[in-house]
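WARN  no MSA supplied for this record, continuing single-sequence
INFO  ligand: adenosine-5'-triphosphate
INFO  echoing inputs
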Amino acid sequence: MEEGLSDIHMASRRAEEAAHRRFLAARWLHEMLGGLGISNEPSEEELKFSLRNGMVLCNLLNKIHPGIIPKIVESPPPSSPPDAALSAYQYFENVRNFLVAVEDLRLPSFEASDLAEGSLSSGTLSKVVDCILALKAYHDQREGKGFSPWKYGVHKLSGTKSPVKGLEDMYEPAITPKSSHTRKRWAIPGADVPEATDISGQPVQSLPSLVKSIISDKQPDEVPVLVEYMIKKVTDEFERRLRLQGEQNLKHTSGLIRTGTLEMQKCWQDQLIRLENELTGLTEAAQAYHDVLAENRKLYNEVQDLKGNIRVYCRVRPFLVGQKDQGTCVDFVGQNGEIMVANSTKGKDSYKMFNFNKVYGPQAPQDEVFLDAQPLIRSVLDGFNVCIFAYGQTGSGKTYTMTGPSSTAKQDWGVNYRALNDLFQLCQSRRDAFAYEVGVQMIEIYNEQVRDLLAADGVSKRLGIRSSSSLNGVHVPDAVMIPVANSSDVLEIMAVGQRNRAVGATALNERSSRSHSVLTVHVQGTDLAKGCILRGCLHLVDLAGSERVEKSEATGDRLKEAQHINKSLSALGDVIAALAQKQTHIPYRNSKLTQLLQHSLGGQAKALMFVHINPDNDSYGETISTLKFAERVSSVELGAARSNREASGIREYKEQIMSLKEILAKKDAEIERLQASRVLRSSMEVEKQKLRVSQSTRSIDARSRRSVELRSMEVIEAGSGCHP
Ligand SMILES: Nc1ncnc2c1ncn2[C@@H]1O[C@H](COP(=O)(O)OP(=O)(O)OP(=O)(O)O)[C@@H](O)[C@H]1O
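INFO  complex generated
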């Protein structure tokens, strides 16, 4: 209730105050312009009506500042026809000109709409009244009558930053029109501000003297209202300036940020474009580099083909479960066949770099490894002899590469199965031009004994054993050759061979293969159009582990096995060394293994070696000796490979020669037999004669002995008759 009463009280106070200000404004207008036809205490509507056409305001301003508004639109004569639109326009012109001039003088202004007909929302006319009273103050000042409180409410664009300065600025009337550079300043008491003058040369006054001068000519009843109004104005202005300053600061800061952002954005864009260009350049350079590399590799391979180098591919086995902690001795695997191994305990000196045709990292899948062997396998169909062998210490992944793990998942297939699969596919694709026969042998060399891995099994009976002479290639004479027609035959045969392979336990590998296993594929293709025959032979060799005897901790039978393995591998090393040095004598006959591979390691065949290494630090020594061996192998030149192609004529002659040889051999054998029987007969005759002679000799002997005896008896008898 009390609150309501105080609101009502406040509202009536404000209404009284507004009425008083209207009264002051009207009185002054009266003084300045004479009779305006309005009452001394006009209502808002009355005052607004008298001011609406802007003429009173324009005339007032021109009176203070003659000519400040050059053209005032006069009211049409009462006799002219009413043109509401035109007069509204004219009035607006006057009001607009007045407001522009007021703005120039930096006095409180109002909106043109505040005088529009019908607009009388609360407080709108108070701005008009404020403006008139500010003009009065301005006029009084110019006339030297002191200052009115409305001066404190004038606009001023200040760049001040500190509150003190802001306050100081607030006391600055800045009454100078925009065009003028001279400004009047009121001094802050005690502040050391040089005395300034306004446009009329008035000196700066302090705030107390200013207040004093404002209220000096006022009626006592006017003073409280004036003071209250002055405080309100000062507060409003202070807030307005703070707001303005904040907005300006914000605008300024956001402008700075925007400019900075734009500059940064441009800078980024420039950098992005530059990077993009550099990247394009780099990509092009990289592409060119790769093209050159690919070209180099192609040329290198061609040169190798011409020289007949043994190709060497190195495969690094991944760590097996539980091995990870040991650390790796493989320091770096390059994309161009480089591999660097290091012994972590020996430091920098132990770093050794090797270079091969390619190095597969631990994650290389089976199909990637096969991809590099594939072209060689295809050349078997073109009549070349090819040998692919896997070398490396026990457990380094030789069987994994050649056979694959025990699972039969397609992605795990090893080189052997992939090779045969590929061969059959090619045979199929060429079946219109060639008739192919494929036969497989599988042997192992165990303790320098060749064992046929297929002979002892029913598989040979089931698939039917073909005479090895019909394929007539570089075969293992004592091993059965099983004809195969498709991949499933091959799978079955390989499973049998794998089962029969000798495996034994060593300290290094539970399922260590103790023998070399050789899968030999013979392919004979008859060119259906020309009748010539192509004979190719592929040896797929999974060598026994190459580790040193002392490391395998073998004793007894195992030691013997290890010694045999070492002997055959060192024989292989000797053959390779002799080939590398192009010696006239190559010691193939020193081991069963080198005897078997003779035609693939020296007879213009193509050879490829997969060298395997264990990644762990413990295997550093073995790894180095394995890589050194592989390095030697890669330097061997077998000479350009030759295809085993026979023209049909030659084949016929060869076959004739063969049959003639066979006939000749038969004749020889017959002659030999005849001769032998003749010799036998004559020797029997001789024996008979001998027998006869000896018999007659014996009878003669008996007779002559008898006659000697008889004679002797006669002599004896005669002798006894003569004595007395
Ligand atoms: N590339 C590979 N990825 C995954 N596992 C592999 C890989 N190479 C080898 N292994 C695994 O390592 C172990 C030894 O491999 P593997 O039997 O092929 O060695 P090895 O050199 O043939 O041994 P050995 O000389 O005794 O015949 C096996 O368990 C095999 O599955």
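The chain has 18 helices and 13 strands.
INFO  checksum written, moving to next record
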